[in-house]
Amino acid sequence: MTRIILIFCAAILAYGQNGLAVSDFGTVAEPENHAVAVDRLMRYHDSGEYESQIRQVVNSAAVYLRERAMRGPAEKMAAVFDIDETSLSNWDVMADCGFCAYKFQAKRAGEAIAPTLELFNFAKSLGVYVFFVTGRQNKERADTMKNLTDVGYSGWTDLYMQTDGTTDPARIFKPRNRRDIESKGYRVVLSIGDQASDLAGCCAERVFKVPNPFYLVK
């Protein structure tokens, strides 16, 4: 009987509750605490490193655009810009809720991401037609256009948005939108976004991804 009890106790120490293996100190391996992750993201943003890394990507995009324009516009050149966390920052909303999932709110308009706004204006100065392609739904069109205009974006060629109620992932509808742009006689020479899914698929000569460790869109 003593032997059975000892074996039973050893099994408890080895696996803990729900079959999780435990160490000699009785702790289980677990992911990083959410509060620690949030603190690291806050420091990454507030230190200036976030904007500095965005600027590095944007500078590379600007160099490419200049070189591409110098080759001569054999066709109408176009650049495609994502909106959220690429052209507009929703930092206040994200920080307030601890990086929870959130929806666009017209009353909490985003701020311009300065390096991207500079790239937007630079592209236009080169004669490149600029398009926005976003996962926001069409019912948000008026508020989105006002937000973009209010923070300095103006003179874009078109704004592609999701049809109200659709749930296609970005990796599906964004290349479809770029294909539609090219079907109208444009050549998409640049696409920039903050998610890999923004840039997946066809129809862009070069793609540039700005950092976004705050959320993931598939």
Structure described in brief:
The chain is of the alpha/beta class and 218 residues long. It has eight helices and seven strands, in the order H-H-H-E-E-H-E-H-E-H-E-H-E-H-E. Strand 6, helix 8 and strand 7 form a beta-alpha-beta unit.
3D structure, described in words:
It is a single chain. This protein has 218 residues and is α/β, with parallel strands linked by helices. It folds into two domains: 1-30, no CATH class; 34-209, Rossmann fold (3-Layer(aba) Sandwich). Helices cover 44% and strands 17% of the residues. It is built from eight helices and seven strands. Mean pLDDT is 88; it is low at 1-23.
Name the descriptors.
globular; 7 strands; Rossmann fold; 218 residues; disordered N terminus
